[in-house]
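Question (not urgent): is this output format expected?
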Amino acid sequence: MRTCNLVLSVLGAGALASAFAGPLLINQLGFTPNSEKLAVVPGSDANELEVRDLNGKTVLTMEAPMVYDWEFSGEEVQTYDFSAVKTPGTYRLYRGGEYLGNPIVIGDRVYEELAKGAIKWFYYQRASMPIEAQYGGKWVRAAGHPDDKVIVYGTDERTAAGYQKSVGKKHPKAGKNVVINSSKGWYDAGDYGKYVVNSGITVFTLLQLYENFPTYMDSLTWNIPRELKNMPLILEEVKYNLDWMLTMQDEDGGVYHKVTTLMFGGSVMPEKDGAPRYAIIKNVTATLDFAAVMAQASVVYKKFDAAYADQCLKAAEKAYAWAKKNPKAFYKQPDDVQTGSYAPGDENGKDEFRWAATELYRAKVVAGQKDKAASGYLADLKANKFTPDGAWWGNVNMLAAFRVAMDGATFGADLNKAAKKVVMDEANNLRAVGDTSGYHLPAFPWSWNWGSNSAMANNAMVLLHAYYLTGDKSYVDGAQQVLDYLLGKNPMEISYVTGFGYRSARNPHHRPSEGDFVDDPVPGMLVGGPHLGKQDINLDGKESWKCENYAAADKPALAYIDNRCSYATNEVAINWNAPLAYVAGALQAIYLNIANTPAK
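Got this back:
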């Protein structure tokens, strides 16, 4: 089934011309010589396909493959494998003498610009500074949200009652109008909030990319203002957010959940969003996520700035100590706060304790501090067994498993074995799904949720870690299929990354892209992707948020619209872009035979 009316509303006349020539669902950026190369053709026609170069020479003929029904779109599709074509160049696929879709590029570095673009997007998300033309091109903007006078929620008259109702007691400094400096950091998503929980998994993912492929990441350059020229660009970018996170730690070690206004602002540029901003409620999950990434940062930055690494480790230990004293201090969204909650509702804190203990123990070993505290972290980790869960901000178990599975020398044989089992079981389940799927997409039914595209990218991270542990290229192939899906091998025939591909998302739910009077959206953003939640259709009866043009879609892979009204399917977020950057960067490094950090 081809949802032509929906595709046309999203993509316009360019997609129609392509469809008349023959639909071809494929990675729109192309492939490397050694990558698996698959193309999906909707329908069940038993036709062979030819791969021809631009001189018209046929380099490969493919027999018609088996027809698959793909449950997530309701389509019948055929998947053609042309991995045998390895010579760099530009090609087209032909059926019955007519070409299908767009030209296909094979090249050594086809994903490098994507990896750099996905990381550079974080520069465009920086709070408290302007985006200047020499770095941001046409997406210039004034500085917004200096955040040098952020009100601690519950200490002013306006929020005192909300704090008391949420926490169950008055703020100890109620009535004192406490203000902190909480500048820097990244805007979290399409709005202008800054959230510690979501920063946690985001920072981990970007630092993990550097840790896994330091030689490759050291080699990459893109255009951002340089203040720390001794650091690789990715680490300078991440430090901008780490610096903000450090401001979120209170004197007692606890960490505030977020810096936001009380309600979401409108679709305005950041300098126009002038409502008071609050540092809202310390809690155990934010504090443990903070502890984990600060411990990780102490390892990564030690080579470049030993004093900063030491500051991060001390902050991490202080945070963990607070969490141990307040293990039930979970975040409850106050009634007068309507910005993102980042609280899954079924929280028990075990995964955050597991992750924080993992990172802290490694950091202490690296720092040569095998003291009583280090022994405590290891004991906590041994008592808190791994669970078979995926990686997202609401469950960070897999982040701990990645670390321990790759480092038996530090964590010991028993923990290493348990962590490997978690990673490999998840990877094998994903690989089995991909091998039998019409689109060869390693996705579970529960992957189709809010931010489904990030769920796919996180699945690819699991597969890549399985490759690091085994050297089995089939896991790389699975990650490749995820990247292919995000870049056009999907039923919507669209690249879900702004500015990359022949037909990419044009109208993301992203306030700077909505308010800057620039036709093109900020490039390098991964939009959320399709799912059946449809939370943006007639929200609470508010006509301004009716986003009904995709209301009829009844399959999760079809429930998407490229419209700024669709915050449910077309918003952007830092924790979605980070795994995109990881997958693109890791695959590119692997294909270039640049060694990753080996398991120990």
